[in-house]
Batch of 2 targets.
Target 1
Amino acid sequence: MIVVDNLRKSFPISYGIIPNIKYRGRIPRREILHGISFTVKRGELFGLLGPNGAGKTTLLKLLCTLTTPDAGTITVDGIDATKHPIAVKRRIGLCSSEERSFYFRLTARENLEFFGSLAGLSGDYLRKRIEHVAEVVDLTDTLETKFSGFSSGMRQRLTMARAMLSDAPILYLDEPTRAVDPVHAEQIRRLIREELVDRQGKTVILATNLLDEAWALCDRLAIMRRGTIAALGPPKELDASYARLLRYQITVDKSDEALLQRVRAVPGVTTVATVDVPGGVNVEVEIEPTNERSVTELMRAVSDNGVTVRSFTFDEPRPMEVFTDITQAGDGDE
Amino acid sequence: MSSIAPALPAPSQNSFRATLAKAGAIYKRDRRIATSYDMAFIIQWLQIVVQVLGFFYMSKLVPPHGRFPGFPYWLINLGFSRFQMTALQSFQTAIRGDQMLGTLECVLVTPTSLATVVMSPGLWGFTLTAVQVLLYIVLGMILGVDFSHTNFLTLFVFVVLTIACMSPLGVMAASTIMTFKQNAPTQFVAGSAAQLLGGVLFPVALLPVPLQVVSWLLPITHSLNGVRAAIMKGASLADPTVGADAIWLVCATAVLMPLSLFIFSRAVNRARRDGTLGHY
């Protein structure tokens, strides 16, 4: 289990010798994370989302012990990450989004051998693990190719292979499908959800900018905004809490102005539109989610008119809308 | 893609063996990278041949006399002073290389101690240097230098002490890189100091007394004194002059080694605090 408690982090506003002289060794710092707290349960796939500059990468680096917090604590399976970084590093695998994170002059196998050895693996076990993870990310045929000859997508898949190499119980994945072609990206998504989390019970923190990916894969999402967690919960709960409008599509055999008038009169309905479809009409309705009886009223309004209802479907809220609502909330006040 | 097979049982390792294995992995990485640049790798050997031949013919102009024994003096100094340059270069080159390649964060996210990360790059560097020094010796033998008096125990001790005493200076240079993301001018400063004040090109006794005092403060002076005594005179460690040089190096190592690791650890912690580990 990962427990992050009241985490604060700041960075100097500038670096180098001259700023150090200018500020007499006390360069002002800008706070990036403002007291973040959350818990990730064992075996959970936890998504980390947010616009650029929200603090996702900083948070991941803190979790990996690559940077240290100003205040607050991170504990991994009960171990304080600041006090015992080596013990925490034994439990984690990192898939970074940084393309330049391998030795260009070495082959994929030599790179994996090197990082596997530093992770404490050796001998036959290391060789078998390399074969395993290369097969999993479909790089078996290119293990003897120098990293410099890899495409961006292959580099990202090799990064994923490195993260899995030590079979660590916790994985931090920073945009694991970035630059990966659609087929392999989908395979990586299934690998994360079905194999690593559901079957092997690993704990995964997935930072991504792909909203559909996060909504489809993650058990819970933390949406960051300006160094804070603006929303936290399962995707369905976020949809319910933050979706501004619920969308329904009702296909009827015929439509007239009287029907549309009754639909418009349903409490909470904001928009009604019709589209002719083969054999009937599609009525698209948007309802504010505040009135619990709106849907019942809507169904009654449609069916009372003697029309035949062929289908009544609910459109899932679009992740983009929920994300935008959360990350831009209050911007007008600032 | 296929599914992952059940996790294989990881072999258990005690921490000393694990550290050795990690140091070995870093050695293998450095060897593979160095030899992948095949042209540069070959040229550095040719440079040694050219350098030795150059000094051999120059020595014809400077006949041996009381303070200067001629070509063997240059040959031994040039060869063995390479250990100093390797110590000063290899650690900072490795850290700088990892910064530039973007691999430093990925190395530091593994459960590997800072001491292992910073010290292990010396393994390949010193191994290569040892073989290069052998080339100096072989070329010297071909050119008529007499190595028959060599006291190998004394020579071995001084090589070890040279590496142990110089490496902390290289680690401190690596700390500079970690903090300021720029190469420290150690190669220029130490190279110049060694040639001018350390007795590489001419005996320290030729310097004015104040500079001889500065020379005494440099590890390279004591290192080369011991190496020359071991090779040219067959001196043992019981020899008072040689013993004094060895004790000087031991004391310097005892002070510099923990100090350099402390400074490097501070530099890494500062980079962690400032979030600049991945900067270059």
Note: Residues 21-274 of chain B form one domain.
Target 2
Amino acid sequence: MSTAEKYVTAAYCVVFAVVLVYVLIMALKLQRLEREVDELAGRVPDEDAEEAPREPARVG
Amino acid sequence: MSSPSSTAAATIPAVVRLRRIPLPALAVSSLVLVTTALAFVFFVAPNDATLGFSQRIFYFHVSIAFAAYACFGCGAWQALRHLWKRDPRADLASYVCVHQGLIFGTLVLITGSIWAKIAWGRWWIWSEDELVLFLVLYLFYCAYFMLRFSVDPGPQRANLSAVYALFGVVLIPVSFSAIRLAKDYFHPQVFTLHGPRFGGWILVTYCIAQAAMLVLAYTLYRLELGGKRLDTRLRRLREALA
């Protein structure tokens, strides 16, 4: 491999690496957002869980 | 005779139609185009008579440079929209465009330095105006982030950022025409008033690489903008629930 070929390969590898790192950062950020959504969903009271312990009231 | 649906489609601005393309389709298009461009660069395009094998950096170096200019230009357009229509979404879009432009600008500097090392034997030459002017453009947009994050979030920050992004667009034609200012070292001038100075497979490869970089930039823009908008909505929701 000549010097020019090495440099050209390095240039394209740098482009690939930078884009890859950027996409990885974005993926990590989206994972964080997903965790936050789960956390917020956990704060919202579950309707089924609230309704389950209820018993029919006696009439008469 | 055109159908009502085709007439309606023709009236929708091109920008709106671009927004309707789903992100996965954009990602696949980027991947296909970048792979095709790489295949053309290394297996189809011929060696340049003057610069030899090292000229192959040109395909991505120039394409990335134009993608960076497009991002900065789009950032200025969104900034203008923010100042004109007071659209809060335009401020975020402008910020993401400038961020994308900076990433592509970093790649221009790195690939350019590698090419300079092969062609001129040095990584950087301070006496060359074309290199220094692109660095000035790059540092100008780096300062955009310093300005933006030194002000508290709100209308003032959005307005200041928008005005700054609008000023930056003036530097783009200066930087583009700077390669004509090369003095001691030969910087290839690939575009003149009479069109590109190359043809055949070199032109075909360049066009594919340019399309690949523009689609990649747009895909990354949409990805980042989607994440940022989701982040903003989540923060508001968290505040409302607190």
Note: Residues 56-241 of chain B form one domain.
